[in-house]
Amino acid sequence: MKTGIMGGTFNPFHNGHLMLGEYAYRQFFLDEVWFMPNGNPPHKQSREVLEDMEHRLEMTRLAIEDIPYFRLCTCEAERKEPSYSWETMRYLKERYPDRKFYFILGADSLFSIETWRHPERLISEVSILAAYRDDKNTPESMNRQISRLNRKYHGDIRLLQTPVLPVSSHEIREGIRNGNLAAGQVPQKVADYIQKHHLYRGE
């Protein structure tokens, strides 16, 4: 099975995440897309980490539960130690040998991936789908970077073309803190969850 992996803090999960997963699913004929909430920064206290992670997992679950080809992947959330992408993808390949994994990332990550821990291992482990947005970079610059990385690391990085993502998690949190959550920014179930648990208001 062809399985996309989309990591992120999802703090909160918003409609741009759904859009990116949907475009990857359709453009590359994936069977499933797994959304994988990342762990929290190590400087946070344990209680903050637990509460934040529980909320982010639940918001992700609520956002995707009605889409049959979307799944919640908790393997990084369940780890106590820091998670690195290359380790996570190697673990998933070993655990699910019948699946071909595609690691979905954005343009920023494509241009910074060589600063990650062992980029050569990640790029050689799985196919990578790098999202190009109309408002950022150009297809030419993206393709140049993809070609360079593929040559250097013998990788399989491909261009994923998407429209402009409508919003960012940071903007949503700022809006909530200022008393405004605009319609259409997050799935309705996520909006209801944020309101019920009074999230982001005290930031």
Helix content estimate: 40-55%
Low-pLDDT regions:
none
Strand content: 15-25%
Q: Total helix count?
A: 8
How many beta strands in the DSSP annotation? 6
The geometry reads as globular
Order of helices and strands: EHEHEHEHHEHEHH
Question: N- to C-terminal separation?
Answer: 41 Å
The biggest sheet, with number of strands, parallel, antiparallel or mixed sense and barrel status, is: 6 strands, parallel
Computed CA radius of gyration, to the nearest angstrom: 17 Å
Report the average pLDDT across residues. 89
Physical arrangement of strands within the biggest beta sheet: 3-2-1-4-5-6
What structural category characterises the helix and strand content? alpha/beta
